[in-house]
């Protein structure tokens, strides 16, 4: 996702507009949540940011352009984490958003993404590695509790 796409998603949420992600999805009432399912949001924002961040374990940033990309991914991951407690249009989204453990995982993801952002700002590969490990641990633990059948979440 490009930065304009992220801004569009945040605008839709804050304006409370309705939008269906497909013909069978539920739509949240205006102002009550995300215009897409939590799963779609996670796939579009969180996975889109976490996967390339994880890849930097094998190919660390070497120049300002690559570190800037890490910064953008970390911010995108923070945005996704910030949206997790907001119910989406999926069938389990309201229940998940109301669960204290779900909210705690979202907060831990935000903290880990913040660590990745700090690492990028400092151009610190070791700190980035620690942040990647935190991100992987949070994602794995959350998926084990809330979506144990979703493949590919164990980093």
Measured between the Cα atoms of the first and last residue, the distance is: 22 Å
Order of helices and strands: HHHHHH
Strand content: under 5%
Shape: elongated
Average predicted confidence as pLDDT: 82
Low-confidence stretches: 1-28
The radius of gyration over CA amounts to 16 Å
Q: How many DSSP E strands? A: 0
Biggest beta-sheet profile: none
Structural class: mainly alpha
Helix residue percentage: 55-70%
Number of helices: 6
Write the layout of secondary structure elements.
Blueprint: H1 3-15, H2 38-55, H3 64-83, H4 93-98, H5 100-122, H6 125-146
Helix pairs in contact: 2-3, 3-5, 5-6
What this model shows, in words?
- It is a single chain.
- The longest helix is centred in the C-terminal third of the chain and has 23 residues, at 100-122.
- The two termini are 22 Å apart.
- The chain has 6 helices and no strands.
- The protein is mainly alpha-helical.
Quick synopsis:
By secondary structure, this protein is mostly helical.
Keywords:
66% helix, 155 residues, single chain
